[in-house]
Specification:
This protein has 99 residues and is α+β, with helices and mostly antiparallel strands. It contains three helices and four strands. Strands 2-3-1-4 form a four-stranded antiparallel beta sheet. It starts with a strand and ends in a 7-residue tail after the last strand. The model has no long low-confidence stretch (mean pLDDT 95).
Length: 99
């Protein structure tokens, strides 16, 4: 059962918002290659605020994702495209509805 997640808040510099959007759209291909990532969502909340929510069956999968290519791309983007480091928080899922 999917019981763990990550919720990330990403704040782009205004001049880089479109590039951050493209980075997140492209990251879907990377997420699809991660067997331990059950679900993965990238979203936009405002002009410069983005987020990612993903779920995992166990802590090993969550840690593997945090050490994977998507996290590395976000940390690299933080150097130039983000106004601050991504705020990534672990969450415990209380209830889940999947198709």
């Amino acid at each position: 059962m999917t019981k763990l997640g990550l919720l990330a808040r990403i704040e782009a510099k205004p001049d880089y918002a479109d590039k951050v959007e493209a980075l997140l759209r492209d990251a879907l291909q990377l997420a699809q290659q991660e067997d331990h990532t059950v679900t993965w969502f990238a979203f936009r909340q405002s002009t410069t605020t983005f987020g990612v929510f993903d779920t995992f069956d166990d802590e090993q999968g969550r840690q593997g994702h945090l050490q994977g290519r998507i996290a590395a791309a976000l940390m690299e983007a933080a150097q130039t495209m983000l106004s601050e480091a991504p705020d990534i928080r672990p969450v415990d899922l209380l209830a889940v509805k999947l198709p």
